[in-house]
């Protein structure tokens, strides 16, 4: 389930960013997006592995899930605010 969410988010962000780049710079943009995406996947996993040695698997898992839930809630709120702003700007134009 998480993989499908990650794939949809990656595709959506890549589409939005690639539309902003000039054709001559899309290769650079693609490389930057992939570096950021791989760091976003690997750094939390490595940190969770390190924290498991210190705090144990259960505490680390609960903390990791709480952090993911907070990030998801922030992303949802941001998306809803941007959608409301877009609708408001569209109705005044």
Write up what this structure looks like:
The protein is mainly α and 93 residues long. The chain contains 3 helices and no strands. It has helices at residues 2-20, 26-55, 57-92. Helix 1 runs antiparallel to helix 2.
Topology:
Blueprint: H1 2-20, H2 26-55, H3 57-92
Helix pairs in contact: 1-2, 2-3
Gist of the model:
The chain is an all-alpha fold and 93 residues long. The chain has three helices and no strands.
Q: The biggest beta sheet, please?
A: none
- What does the radius of gyration come to? 18 Å
Distance between the termini: 39 Å
Which term fits the overall shape?
flat
Secondary-structure content class: mainly alpha
What share of the residues lie within helices? over 70%
Stretches with pLDDT under 50, minimum 5 residues: none
Number of strands: 0
Summarize this structure as a short list of keywords or feature phrases.
93 residues; mainly alpha; 3 helices; flat
